[in-house]
Amino acid sequence: MIIRAFKLGNILATVALALYAGKHFFGV
């Protein structure tokens, strides 16, 4: 259960980082 939550957090962090990178590089 803890591992599952950690994986979910990892996915959310990756998505957030991708959105931040897209916003930073493309000015969206």
Order of helices and strands: H
Helix-strand makeup class = mainly alpha
- Counted by DSSP, the helix tally is 1
The rounded Rg comes to 12 Å
Query: How many extended strands?
Result: 0
What is the makeup of the main sheet? none
Rough shape?
Answer: rod-shaped
Structural commentary:
- With 28 residues, this protein is mostly helical.
- Helix content is 89%, strand content 0%.
- The protein contains one helix and no strands.
- It is rod-shaped and about 40 Å long.
- The termini are far apart.
Please give a handful of descriptors for the protein shown.
single chain, mainly alpha
In a few lines, what is going on in this structure?
The protein is mainly alpha-helical and 28 residues long. The chain has one helix spanning 2-26.
List the helices and strands and how they pair.
Blueprint: H1 2-26
